[in-house]
Amino acid sequence: MSESKKNYTAADLRILDPIEGILMRPDMYISPDKDPRKMAAQIAEEAFILTKGPVYLNRIDEWYIIAAENDWLANPKCFEGEPEIQKLFRSIIAFPEWGDNSMYGEVLLTVFAQQVVTWLSGERTIIKGDETEIDELERVVNDHPEWKRVVAFREFGKLDQE
Q1: What are the pLDDT digits (tens) for 113-137?
Q2: Residue 92 falls within a domain, yes or no?
């Protein structure tokens, strides 16, 4: 065997953190322009495929908002029972309803957005970032009690993670 070839063993393998894997090859997961409108549309399409009823897509200043009257993140097939929302936003999860090799896009928000916030029945969870500049979003969510799940993000496209 030549010196340029190596026999790999199980000891050579390691499990990558999903976010680390995406950062290593972002071009495999998102278009080069990192257009936040495309990501918002992808998340809205997930909600549309997985729920019955209206799906809302809006923008307030730098924030992109996706909302639905049903929770499209309630039961991805890889989780037993109710998922922990933080795990859902930090994992690569198969999305077979969208086709082979498809995945939920929420993890991409965690990688590429500066702030990510979600609400379930009015209860807020900050996925990434802090509480700055979310007062207007909170008001909008509170004005729409019919929205069961809301996902909002801003400053998309920067390769910066917490």
Answers
A1: 999 999 999 999 999 998 888 888 9
A2: yes
